Amino acid sequence: MRLSISEITTVTQSFEDDLDAYRAAGADGIGIWEMKLAEDSLERFYASGLGAAAAIPAVPSILPLPLMEGPADPAERVEAICAGIRRLAPFGPECVLFLTGPGDDRSTILDGIRAIAAEGAAQRVPVALEAIQPEFAHLWSVVDSLDSAAALIDEAGAGVGLMYDSWHLWREPVAAIERHRDRIRGVHLADWREPTRNTNDRVLPGDGVVEFGPILEALDWGGFYDLEIFSDAELPDSLWKEDPRELARRGLEALRRAVSTASA
What we know:
This protein is an alpha/beta fold. The protein is about 40% helix and about 15% strand. The strands form 2 sheets. It has an 8-stranded parallel beta sheet with strand order 3-2-1-10-7-6-5-4. A two-stranded antiparallel ribbon has the order 8-9.
């Protein structure tokens, strides 16, 4: 059981502060966000003793995202993702994940997937496509299930894996998880608030409605269980309003309970 925290969870902290907070909380790894990296981050990372879970490039999608800034031109976005892969590869992440973005330009998406796969192969780092749960998929992606993500990758004929995120895919049938288990390259865990108020409204494992036992059993995952919390600071009781170090501590405890209970 290896536990990590994705840096978006403590969004206001620096990379250096995240390393310190996650080590203090007892984490084994860190989910690196390129947007937080500084010139000395690689040296600090290796000195920390932490491993690297799934990494996220500064520009995370092929097509533009309504809720995030970035280039409008998909070709520029794909090159930014490829540059992110090159920058993140020295950290040795389990994978670099990416999204399609929303839109109807399927040929551009397919070409982008192929280019990203080629860069991942060149840098010897796995790349993984993340599916977004159906309620908010229109803001992020054209794929909203493991099946649809796998089908898109197969259509592209590209060497791309899948990212499993419990907040997005907790409603997936166990059979779908088992069907695609060998293609999964990274695992994000968070719980689903009921009711959920917007696309950035996650809660810690155990504080929502997700039953993690069957999911984790189906995943049979040997890598990092990476806590990833988006929590709109404008909403009441947002986790992003908490002290980041305390959130890292509480988050890791919740993650450990969820994984330990499921493994019992």
